[in-house]
Structure formats: C-alpha cells, structure tokens
Amino acid sequence: MKKILNTFLICSVLTLSTIPVIAKGWFGKDKNPKEKEKQKVEIVKPDKAKPNIKREIKKDKENAIHKKESSQEAEGMYETKFPVINSQIEYSDMNGEVTLSDCIKLAITHHPTIMSAISNAEIYKTMVGQAWSNYFPTLSAGVSYSRNDMLMTNPGYARMMSQKYNMYYAPTVSANMLLFDFGKTKANADLAQRTYESSRFDAETSIELVIYNVKVAYYNLVFAEIQKSVYEDTVKDFELQLKQAKAQYDIGRKAKIDVTTAEYNLGNAKVNLIKAKNTLELAAAELANAVGIPELENVILKDKLNSKAYNVNFPDLLKTAEASRPALLSSKKLRDAAELNVRAAKRSFAPDLSAFGTFDQGGRQIDSDYGYSVGVQLNYTALNLMLLKKQVDQAKAEYKKAVADYEQQKQNVYLEVKSAYISLLNSHDSIEVSKLALQQAKERQYQAFRRYQVGLGDAIEFKDAENSYLNAQLDYYSNLLNYNINAAELERVIGAPIKESDIDL
C-alpha cells in the first residue's frame, strides 16, 4: 500500500505543476458571447408525418443538432453585422409569406457550404488545444509476466532430473512532464491560434457569399413575379384591343386587317407570358438552391425590390472594408501566423527541460522487489543543425509570401469596393432615367388607347405604344433589380451593411 501511495504522489506532483500552464492556455482564449434573444418567425407550418424508422429518427436528431450548432456559430460571427440571422427557421416553416430574412435564416441552418466552413474552423480550433497539451504530463503503465524453466540432471544418479524455474511479475508506472522548452510550445500554440482565427474569417467569407447569393436569387424571383404580372397586363390590353377591333369591324369602322393584327399581337403577348411563367419557375428553383434546400413551394414573397437611396461615399466604404472584410482579415491572420512560424522554427534549436518519475516492481512475488525514481532532464529531441537551419529559411520564405499575398488582397479589396461603388451609383442614375421614361411611355400608351377607342388610331399605333410601355416597365424594374443586386454586392465586398436614406428613388 505504501508503494502505491508513493506512485500516486509522484503523478500528483507532476499534474499539479501543469495547472498554471493550463490556466494560461485555456482561460484567456475564446470567450463565448452571450446568445441574443431569438426572434420568432410566425409562419403557418404544414403538417408533416414523422418517419417511423428509428434509424431515420436518430439521424434526423443528429442532423438537427449539427445544424443548430452551425447556425449558432454563424450567428456568433455575424450577430453584430447582420441581425436578420439571429433567429432560426426550418424548412417546414417556409410556407405562406416568406421574407428575405427568412431565406437567409434558412440558409444559415441548411446550406452545406456554411456547415463545411464552420466545421473546418472547428478543426483548427482543436489544434490550438493540441499545441498547448504539450505541457500536460504523459503517463504510462504496463505489466509483464515471464517464467524461465530449466531441467537439471544429477550426474550421480542416472535418469534422475530436477526442474527449476524463475517467475517474474513486473508492473511499471512512469510519468513525464515538460517544464520548460524555451518558448517552443507557446510559439506553436500562437501559430495554431492565428491559423484558427484565419479559418473563422474564412467561414465568415463563406457566410457572406451565401447571404449574397440568397439576396440575388430572392431579388431575381421578385423580378420574375413582376415580369409575369407585366405580361399578364399586356395580354389583357391586347385582349381588349381585339374585342374593340371586332366591334369596330362589325359596324364597318375598321378593316379586317385591324382584327388580324390584334389577334397577332395577342398571340405574341401570350407567348411572352408563357416564357415569363417558365422564368418564374426557374427563379424559384434558383432561390431554393441558394438557400440550400430541395425546393420552395406555396410561398409568397413578402419583400419587394428596395427603392431607397443609400448614404455611401467611397473613403468610408474603403475604411469599413479594411476593418470588416473577412477575406482581408483572414489574409492578415495568415501573415501573422507565418511570422510566428519563423519564431517557432528558430525555437527548434532549444532543448527541453522535463521532469520524470517511475515506479517498478518485480520478482517471483508481486511485492518482492520494487523501486522508484524521480528527477529532471535536459535533452535535445533532434539536433540536426543543417535541417533546422533550412527549416528556418523555409519559414522566412513563407512569411515573405504571406506578406505579398496580404498586400495583393488589399489591392483586390480596393478594386472590388471601387467597382461595386461605381456600379451602385450607375444603377441609381439608371433608375431615375428609366422612371421618367416609364411615365412618358405610360402616357403615350394611354393616349394611343383612347385614340383607338374613338376610331382615330390604328392597330399599329396601339401596338407600338403598348410595346413601348411594356419595354419601359421591364427596363425600369430591371434597373431596380440591378440596384438591389449592386447594393448586396457592395455589402459583401465591405463585409458590413450599408445605410439607407429616407429618400425614395
């Protein structure tokens, strides 16, 4: 019993000495932010039958847990930037009126790209703990059994033999703990921490891209609905023209060519309406794909295309991008990690100072022989100076590359912000011009319709005015679509929302 107590005493001393190091590695690192109160999305849920197979139920529960963890991680990254994702929504909730916020929330919990990016960040997070674990004691234990048999003959007696054997039990317990390594472990831990931080920014980049794609798909679906509505109105106008042409022809005020022309115009309008319906169906599929779900059915888009002006200027946008753009911040962290890698490579020259303790016992009886030892040792795990020097040179070259990559990333961000800013301004001006053209085309269409009613106009004049009004509507809404997409692109490249003004375009 005394020997066992001695063994545990050695292990306890080694373990207690690691507490300050563990506290330094664990308690000053990531602090989970408090989860914000989640908003409820009031949407009527359809009744769906649950699977009866136990395996499927278990799998669904595991997937739900994984999706929840991924969404919480994403919300932790983005709750200060994009408040719209602060509550969760499920696929079954996408029924009835659906907002852009609902689609973004659904993408956060379902899109495979986000789940993959967050899981990758979690992998790098474990590497930080692995690096600090070098300060933990290593314990090993084992037991061996051996028996040696020997037959001995007695020369004085023929055919008389005796047997002798030795039996050994050898249990062993040993412990080893690093005390000081001249900063090698800390350098590797700092390197792992910077790499983990870079992976988090990479995950934010993936989230931003998914959010952008959802916005574009949502706006395209809204535009597709508007386009279908415009073509439906055009069909109604040509139906009314055909009705009036027939009435005028019956009383002899119009020629047969007017009726034929009206029928031709109506046919073309119906063909365009069919194409618009197909485009609408395709846009719905693209939105479902952007969200990360199979399909969207029986949904009504609540949000419309935004016509609010934005208060933006390029210098402020560039400053925001330099402070918030995840891709740029990730490149910066990789640069810092490469610099720390140089330090870690240089520290490889240093020896390790460690403490050790062992306990052994053996013999024919379990308690026949025993012994223990404790001490400290200073050693080089590998002393190949040429190899270590080349590793340092490699680390320096990688650092130079990381610096160049960071500078290149800064230039790319500048160009992207500049391009998105100019595109937003251009689409803003295009809306104002197309809005005026739409008003003029609407007035012309109204006058042509009135002239046709009283018999002063002909079918060709009415068709030209109607088509001009149709194209003016599509041009205006197309410019409004581009304006919303350009605003989404600008938010993506700066890594933060842009402020709206109180002025409508």
The low-confidence runs, each spanning 5 or more residues with pLDDT under 50, are: 1-51, 77-87
Output the helix-strand order.
HHHEHHEEHHEEHHEEHHE
Helix-strand makeup class: alpha+beta
Number of strands: 8
N- and C-termini, Cα separation: 87 Å
Question: What is the 3D form?
Answer: elongated
Mean pLDDT: 77
| Count of domain modules | 1
The order of strands across the largest sheet is 2-3-6-7
CATH superfamily placement? Outer membrane efflux proteins (OEP)
Main CATH class: Mainly Alpha
Q: Which fold name fills CATH's third level, the topology? A: Outer membrane efflux proteins (OEP)
Helicity range of the residues? 55-70%
Individual helix count: 11
| Rg for CA atoms | 38 Å
Beta-sheet strand percentage? 5-15%
Q: What's the architecture, going by CATH?
A: Up-down Bundle
Report on the biggest sheet.
Answer: 4 strands, antiparallel
Q: What does this entry look like structurally?
A:
It is a single chain. The chain has a single domain (about 65-135, about 180-350, about 385-505), classed as Outer membrane efflux proteins (OEP). The chain has eleven helices and eight strands. The protein has helices at about 1-15, 20-25, 55-80, 100-110, 110-130, 185-250, 255-290, 315-325, 325-345, 385-455, 460-495, and strands spanning about 95-100, 140-155, 160-180, 300, 310, 350-360, 370-380, 500-505. The strands form three sheets. It has a four-stranded antiparallel sheet, with helices on one face. Strands 1-4 form a two-stranded parallel sheet. The chain has a two-stranded antiparallel sheet with strand order 5-8. β6 and β7 form a beta hairpin. α6 runs antiparallel to α9. The N and C termini lie far apart (about 85 Å). Mean pLDDT is about 75; it is low at about 1-50 and about 75-85.
